[in-house]
Write a structure and sequence with these properties.
It holds the Pfam family Hemocyanin_N. With 733 residues, the protein is an alpha+beta fold. The chain has three domains: 114 residues, Up-down Bundle (Hemocyanin, N-terminal domain); 367 residues, Hemocyanin, C-terminal domain (Immunoglobulin-like); 48 residues, no CATH class. The protein is built from 24 helices and 14 strands. The radius of gyration is 28 Å and the shape is globular. The protein starts with a helix and ends in an 11-residue tail after the last helix. Bound molecules: 2-acetamido-2-deoxy-beta-D-glucopyranose (2 copies). One 2-acetamido-2-deoxy-beta-D-glucopyranose binds next to helix 9 and strand 1. One 2-acetamido-2-deoxy-beta-D-glucopyranose binds next to strand 7 and strand 10.
């Protein structure tokens, strides 16, 4: 029971919680564990339990005492100290977090779980604790419906630039201007101009998208042995592929709206164009590592003056990445992978794609991880460009080495695009879908009628009170409040009607709806076979096809995409849990439009329902950005394989041009403006420009160095110069 159940349970958990006061109090207790996470707790109830509860004496209260003992062994040996930076991509850290997770997970009763958590909140490093606790909450049968507080409020350090955090500190020290004070938090690029791609930081730094990515990785941590823990999921590897494929596609749509083209690609042997300056600091004050533009990975930058092999687990990251990638790509072309004992396992089989995806994710189900390695983990380290730690406990993870901050680095998108290219190497070795696989005899999509699609930016307030340090008294209450305000993309609700005629009656079918680009950033048509991976699936549902006309109406509000998350304090006050399961933020359902309209394709395909054949106990999760897996078609169907254009255009599929218009001021402190909006602004300017130019040339004729009009001339000149216009040759001193 997990994700699919979750969607059902969450709908009724408001009432369930209201009826069940005990559960409500438990939830309140759980939320308290997240307060001022970067400090050791001084909440009295935590400290009391931490001092009185002893895990060893209660070992019979855990279903698997052996796992608990493993943790205690580590604890006695010494864990990552308080206030050090936790990095889950560092073995020593992850080992501790995974061990602590098992203590939480295997606690029989909620009471034991809670006491263990209070004990750990007081005694264990905050990062280790937060990670282990969050995953345990997501997976325990008695807590999985408890919605976690938004991570950007729990840990603002990982979501806001330093000047924002600094300002919060200033107000804490100097006194707040008002009880509900808020100020504007800007995205990167408004201060430090590092690369034009910073114009996309409203997307790559969006708190909702980053939180979605973080929670996705809590649901399905790549290291988690789902068999050992009994948390089964259906085709884990394939879901992994689809999640990233869709995320990358969605980013590409946003790039097009901002006049950027394809996500960049790179070679490890060559310099890496896009640098990254996070402008962020860890709660202990250490800055996030930076990567300059044109970084060279092959010079082993971080080994200069360091020993080559003994510091940390990544000294050979450059070679490891190249080796793993080579082996995986060989396997794809050979058609099999090699097990530890040298046997061949074919990958062009019904489950073969999943086998390959397990290897690329490097999860515990992956075959021969010694040989195929942890490609993405090493690549994150290499591209993240951090230092060799002096000891395992003095690590400074790069932005790419935390899930909260990964998306901020342009390197992330390039790296995962490369991952999709590996997967597609496999898919292009499969034959394109045949006519009978695409076709639904008797069913024809006549058209799609879509409401006007309108995007805009609006303000969103975020409570960052947890970013400040409080004393023991302040810790007991919730008295310090500081909010930041951010411009975030949004769109007006819309509906679309799919007009289907059918000669078949009472046939269960599945409808898929995609949004994809039509033109590239230069206005050139993108051939479908080159475009297919840019389609984002926004809707998928089952529908009983009736003979005759079927007018299917869908509303953007009903899609699985998530509403804004409720803030930490609202959760605490209202104790309501009524959110949908984790999906991409609804605000970003549509890519940003342009003032004069940006064309996209909407594509619909209707196919007969193909039931899922599930293994016993398997769970069907949300896949991609916000759709449920309903049937047994490959994820991404029909765009996942290369396209045979002679058979692709079936009657049961339909491409519709749609226009997304952007309304209002689309300026985020000068970072992102569409050309047509700029042109409109210039049009107004150029009228006054002509008038000023005329006056200028008149003055110029009468200009003499000592004349009284000289001051007037200077003033006009300065005004002219600062008016941001092109300076014509004829106006010179
Ligand atoms: C964000 O930018 C605005 C406009 O430039 C500025 O007034 C504000 O102080 C900035 N916010 C912070 C936290 O620096
Ligand atoms: C659906 O398409 C059919 C066939 O083109 C047409 O007759 C009908 O009017 C359409 N219905 C709507 C509501 O557009």
């Amino acid at each position: 029971m997990k994700l699919v159940l979750l969607s059902i349970i969450c709908i009724c958990c408001t009432c369930a919680l209201a009826e069940d006061d005990a559960k409500l109090l438990q939830y309140k207790d759980v939320l308290d564990l997240f307060k001022y996470m970067h400090q050791r707790t001084s909440l009295k109830k935590h400290v009391d339990i931490a001092n009185s509860f002893n895990i060893k004496e209660n070992i019979d209260k855990y279903t698997h005492p052996e796992f608990v003992n493993e943790f205690l062994k580590l604890y006695d040996h010494g864990l990552l100290p308080m206030d050090e930076i936790y990095g889950l991509f560092y073995d020593a850290h992850l080992e501790e977090a995974a061990a602590l997770f098992k203590v939480f997970y295997f606690a029989k009763e909620f009471d034991t779980f809670y006491k263990s958590a209070c004990w750990a909140r007081y005694n264990v490093n905050q990062g280790v604790f937060l990670y282990a606790l969050s995953i345990a909450l997501q997976n325990r049968a008695d807590t999985f419906e408890m919605v976690l507080p938004p991570i950007y409020e729990v840990n603002p350090y990982y979501f806001f630039n330093n000047e924002v955090i600094q300002k919060a500190h200033r107000y804490k020290q100097m006194g707040q201007p008002g009880p509900e004070y808020h100020f504007q938090a800007n995205y990167s690029g408004w201060y430090m101009n590092v690369h034009p791609e910073q114009a996309l930081s409203y997307f790559t730094e969006d708190v909702g998208i980053a939180a979605y990515y973080y929670f996705y990785n809590l649901y399905r941590p790549c290291w988690m042995n789902i068999e050992e823990l009994g948390v089964n999921t259906y085709k884990r590897g394939e879901q992994y592929y689809y999640f990233y494929q869709q995320l990358i596609a969605r980013f590409y749509l946003e790039r097009l709206s901002n006049h950027f083209g394809e996500i960049g690609s790179y070679d490890y042997e060559d310099a890496f164009e896009t640098g990254y300056f996070p402008s962020m600091t860890y709660p202990n004050g250490v800055p996030f590592p930076q990567r300059p533009n044109w970084a060279k990975f092959f010079t082993n930058y971080y080994n200069h003056g360091q020993s080559f092999s003994t510091k940390g687990q990544y000294p050979y990251a450059y070679y490891s990445v190249m080796d793993y990638e080579r082996r995986i790509r060989d396997a794809i072309d050979l058609g099999f992978v090699i097990t530890e004992d040298g046997k061949q396992v074919g990958i062009y089989t019904p489950d073969g794609f999943n086998t390959l995806a397990d290897i690329l994710e490097a999860n515990p189900q992956a075959i021969n991880s010694q040989y195929y390695g942890h490609l993405l983990v090493f690549a994150r380290h290499l591209i993240g460009y951090t230092f060799q730690p002096l000891t395992p406990y003095k690590t400074v993870p790069s932005a790419l080495e935390n899930f909260e901050t990964s998306l901020r680095d342009p390197g992330f998108w390039q790296l995962y695009k490369r991952l999709i290219i590996h997967f597609q190497k496999y898919k292009t070795n499969l034959s394109p879908y045949k006519h009978e696989e695409l076709h639904f005899p008797g069913v024809k999509v006549e058209g799609i009628v879509v409401d006007p699609l309108v995007t805009f930016f609006d303000n969103f307030d975020i409570d960052i009170s947890n970013a400040v340090y409080v004393n023991d008294d302040e810790f007991q209450g919730n008295d310090f409040n500081i909010h930041v305000r951010q411009f975030r993309l949004n769109h007006k609700p819309f509906s679309y009607k799919i007009n289907v005629t059918s000669t078949v009656d009472k046939v269960e079918s599945v409808v898929r709806v995609f949004i994809g680009p039509k033109w590239d950033e230069y206005g050139r048509f993108i051939e479908l076979d080159e475009n297919r991976l840019n389609f984002v699936e926004i809707d998928r549902f089952r529908y009983m096809m009736a003979s005759g006309n079927n007018l299917i109406t869908r509303n953007s509000e009903d899609l699985l995409f998530n509403d804004d998350r409720v803030s930490f304090k609202q959760m605490y006050d209202k104790l309501q849990v009524a959110e949908k399961p984790h999906a991409f933020p609804k605000r970003f359902l549509l890519p940003k439009g342009r003032a004069s309209g940006q064309t996209f394709y909407m594509y619909v395909i209707v196919n007969p329902y193909k039931p899922l054949v599930l293994e016993k106990g398997a769970v069907v999760p949300i896949v991609g950005l916000g759709v449920e897996r309903h049937d047994d078609f490959a994820l991404g169907f029909p765009f996942d394989r290369s396209i045979d254009k002679t058979v692709f255009y079936v009657d049961n599929g339909y491409f519709q041009n749609v226009m997304v218009n952007h309304e209002g001021d689309d300026t985020i402190y000068g970072l992102t403006r569409s050309y047509d909006q700029l042109a409109a602004a210039d049009c107004v300017k150029s009228q006054s420009y002509e008038a000023e130019k005329a006056q200028m040339s008149k003055l110029k004729l009468s200009y003499e160095p000592s004349s009284s009009s000289s001051a007037e001339f200077d003033e006009l000149y300065l005004k002219f110069r600062s008016s941001n216009l092109y300076m014509p040759q004829s106006v010179r001193f």
